[in-house]
From TrEMBL:
The modification S-(2-succinyl)cysteine is found at residue 95. Substrate binds at residues 30, 95-97, 152, 182, 214-215. It comes from Saccharopolyspora hirsuta. The gene is maiA. This is Maleate isomerase. One of its GO terms (molecular function) is maleate isomerase activity.
Length: 268
């Protein structure tokens, strides 16, 4: 009797049809993007039948201050190499303020650094960043003026404001919740966000940035805030999701997360 052995991966394609792999680079203390993004893509999968899987690399960052943010940015290339080993179709650099704290336009350089690192590792992938996704999404929906909520201390909120304004979008008003510890940010109650956003001076605004942070939970509040405020509501998570889908060539079809992700026939 002869026994035949066949390697499990000998005839397997590198990527399965109907499945997209998404790589995430997140701060080590982040607890939100790895919950909100999979939930958003679960809804997309339920509507379309396409499957999405997530594969993460973590860069050290506990406290939201300029020193730790700068150190995290310096680890982006190493994280890109690590996550690219999973051969993702798209890599999302899921930290907003770390990039914005590096100065106007920094998302372009960060995206290029990550793309180069993945390509040099033999696994090229498209790259989006939460910082770039936020400003590009606002631009693409035609928002010239916006208001926003952040969990940051006032100086970092001012940095985010200046960054967004450097991309041609005026911030009419902002609210800082002033939580410095990043784990504590992830424990904020998203159900309070619509009321907080309701205190913003919104006259003349084209959009509301409900969470200008990848760590502040907001998904549970996006649709309610949009319904109550009667303005498009965008968060770091919904903007990042939109750009990932765009990079994959997929049309958004996600219910209950605002008009940004609801598809071409949605309306406020």
């Amino acid at each position: 009797m002869t026994t035949q052995h066949r390697a499990c991966d000998s005839d397997s394609p590198a990527k399965l049809p109907g499945v997209s792999r998404i790589g995430l680079i997140v701060p080590s203390s982040n607890t939100t993007m790895e919950t909100e993004l999979p939930e958003l893509f679960r809804r997309q999968a339920a509507a379309t039948g396409h499957v999405y899987t997530f594969h993460s690399a973590r860069a050290g960052m506990r406290t939201v201050n300029k020193e730790e943010l700068a150190a995290m940015v310096g680890k982006a290339a190493d994280c890109a190499v690590a996550v690219s080993d999973a051969q993702p179709d798209v890599i999302a650099y899921a930290c907003l303020v770390a990039v914005m704290a590096q100065g106007p336009g920094a998302h372009r350089e960060s995206e290029q650094i990550i793309a180069d690192a993945a390509r040099n590792n033999g696994n090229p992938a498209q790259v989006v960043s939460s910082a770039g996704a936020l400003v590009r999404s606002l631009t693409e929906i035609g928002a010239k003026k916006a208001v926003m909520v952040t969990p940051y201390m006032r100086p970092l909120t001012a940095t985010v404001r200046q960054y967004i304004e450097s991309e041609g979008i005026e911030i009419l008003d902002d609210i800082s919740l002033e939580v410095e510890n990043n784990v504590a940010v992830g424990r904020l109650d998203p159900e309070k966000l619509p009321a907080i956003a309701g205190d913003l001076r919104r006259e003349g605004a084209d959009a509301v940035i409900l969470s200008a942070c990848v760590q502040m939970p907001s998904l549970a509040a996006v649709q309610r805030a949009e319904d109550e405020l009667e303005l498009p509501v965008i968060t770091a998570a919904t903007a990042t999701t939109r750009e990932i889908l765009k990079a994959l060539g997929h049309q958004p079809a996600i219910p209950g997360a605002g008009s940004l992700l609801a598809g071409p026939n949605s309306a406020l």
